[in-house]
Specification:
The protein has 13 helices and 18 strands. By secondary structure, the chain is α+β, with helices and mostly antiparallel strands. Among the domains are: 2-121, no CATH class; 129-160 and 418-516, no CATH class. The strands form seven sheets. It has a five-stranded antiparallel sheet with strand order 1-8-5-4-3, with no helix packed on it. Strands 2-7-6 form a three-stranded antiparallel sheet, with no helix packed on it. β12 (292-294) and β13 (299-301) form a beta hairpin. α8 (321-340) runs antiparallel to α9. It is globular, with a radius of gyration of 25 Å.
Length: 516
């Protein structure tokens, strides 16, 4: 619902009116819903009205919704042309609301809510609760820009990504990828809510996984695996959307374990265990059955996939580093959930954890995958996401990763990566890796790198290009990274580990949760 209050002498002079116009969808990959040239493809009619309200009925193909306009004072709604209505008030003061609903509003309930009061109460509560970071004592010239991005990102993620579905990458602003949402991006949209002590906003979208369970189980069974295989690109129905990449991605798989673990850390209770343990187990069952045992080398491998760095090909990718580290972490956490539930650890899962392949390196640098021996020669391997950094950044230290090798890899990537072909969440991922490696200067530099896909517009939108003028995984990633750079992670002993200790970054924070 939108509310507006207008005070102007132009109203009496009939020079100020409110126009309501309704376009058709373009049906494009990125759909702004701005097709004004085909009025015959949809209808807008007056469903009901009286002297203080007018309800419009909208029909587009198989979709129907209602627009409820209410006002105080004298006014009249006139249809100017198809899909174009004018609300013409009388007097120099005017107040109206406009709400949208799937069902027709009941006439007896067509009363005007005080939206401004409701909105004010909501946002006062939002900003006075949860985490906060104060940069007012910082002297680094970039601090105010970072603070601007953080404040606007919190607002944008609250209005765009806190619903009961995993959001699409442009949120509610306009459609991207034909309106589908991507489960591998759910991590970037939602994890920050828990870190900023707003876990209830993360939980809103987790119930959808129960609805998607049957389809996810069917996908796994059809492919010969146990448990559930969470789809990549989907919609509210959870049907797997067609994609030349999506069916080969697996890095969305452990996300549910990560979400459930964050909820448990926020509220370590039997209630949380009972609510999520079955989905955690089903997720882990797929992860175990998906890994292949290499009997010659007595190890488990991951293959036949497109990794998070999507420039790699499924038929030649073995053991991409981020996926290996995520499999290790995810199965270890799933074991903890068994123990918390009073069960024995799964021996097969432990065998996989202990025998999972280490990250492959060559000449002191980690490879994009075990077979990608030309990682640092072929531009295909140094474009898109530098996902290798997620193995120690998004994820904590494990015995699969060597700190010195990762430091070498981070330095090479910072200096040589094809940064003009990256995405908004690559910068916070890089910052998280640098922070875990004890290099806070590089963490800040990565977070504020001057690149097109790391641009934050005046309204806070993380701009990628003309097609993706808002890219919310970048905003969510920023909030994850700065929370981690302030509050740290499990086992960290450095105060505010992600910011330099040179007196230019005197950061003050409160109520942030540590990262795993």
């Amino acid at each position: 619902m939108i509310e507006a209050q207008i005070s102007s002498s132009l109203i009496i002079q009939h020079q100020l009116k409110i126009s309501l116009r309704f376009p058709y969808a373009t049906g494009n990959h990125a759909d702004d819903a701005t097709d004004w040239d085909h009025p015959e493809k949809h209808t807008t009619t007056i469903y009901d009205s009286d002297s203080h309200f007018c309800i419009l009925k909208r029909v587009l193909d198989g979709d129907t919704y209602f627009v409820n306009i209410q006002w105080k004072g004298d006014a009249e709604v006139k249809e100017k042309e198809a899909h174009y209505f004018i609300l013409e008030p009388q007097g120099d003061q005017f107040k109206f609301t406009c709400s949208f609903s799937k069902e027709a509003p009941k006439k007896e309930n067509a009363i005007m809510d005080d939206v401004i009061t409701l909105a004010s109460d909501y946002w006062q509560n939002f900003w006075k609760n949860g985490g906060a970071i104060d940069f007012s004592q910082c002297t680094d010239s970039r601090a105010s820009e970072l603070e601007r991005r953080i404040i606007l990102s919190q607002y944008l993620m609250a209005i765009q990504c806190a619903g009961d579905l995993p959001p699409q990458e442009t949120g509610l602003t306009y459609n991207s990828w034909y309106g589908k949402f991507h489960l591998e991006m759910h991590w970037w949209h939602a994890v920050h809510f828990a870190l900023w002590n707003r876990t209830e906003l993360l939980e809103r979208s987790l119930d959808w996984y129960n609805k998607a369970y049957d389809n996810a189980k069917s996908i796994a069974k059809r492919q010969g695996f146990d448990g559930v295989r969470w789809m990549k690109m989907t919609d509210p129905s959870s049907i797997e959307a067609p994609s030349g990449v999506g069916s080969f991605l697996i890095w969305q798989q452990p996300h549910f374990i990560y979400f459930a673990e964050l909820v448990y850390r926020s509220n370590p209770s039997d209630e949380v265990l009972n609510k999520y343990k079955d989905l955690v187990q089903a997720t882990a069952e797929f992860m175990y059955s998906f890994a292949d045992y290499d009997s010659i080398n007595n190890r488990y491998i991951l293959q036949g996939i497109i990794p998070a760095q999507e420039t790699l090909r499924a038929n030649e990718t073995v053991n991409p580093p981020f996926e290996l580290a995520y499999w290790h972490w995810g199965l270890e956490v799933a074991q903890k959930w068994l123990e918390r539930s009073g069960k024995e650890r799964n021996k097969e899962w432990d065998e996989l954890i202990n025998k999972l392949s280490p990250l492959k390196e060559l000449d002191g640098l980690y490879l994009a995958s075990e077979d990608a021996v030309d990682t640092y020669k072929d531009v295909r391997f140094t474009s898109d996401h530098p996902a290798v950094l997620g193995a120690l950044g998004i994820l904590p230290k494990s015995n699969l990763v060597d700190d010195e090798l990762m430091k070498n890899t981070l330095d090479w990537i910072l200096k040589n990566w094809n940064w003009d072909h990256t995405w908004g969440w690559d910068y916070p991922m890089t910052a998280m890796c640098a922070a875990r490696l004890g290099q806070p200067e590089k963490a800040v530099d990565a977070l504020l790198m001057n690149k097109r896909t790391n641009t934050y517009l005046v309204n806070g939108h993380n701009y990628q290009d003309d097609r993706l003028r808002v890219y919310l995984p970048g905003n969510g990633g920023l909030l994850i990274a700065v929370a981690m750079m302030c509050a740290g992670w499990d086992g960290n002993k450095v105060e505010i580990p992600g910011f330099p200790k040179d007196s230019t970054w005197n950061v003050v924070w409160e109520d942030l949760a540590v990262l795993p």
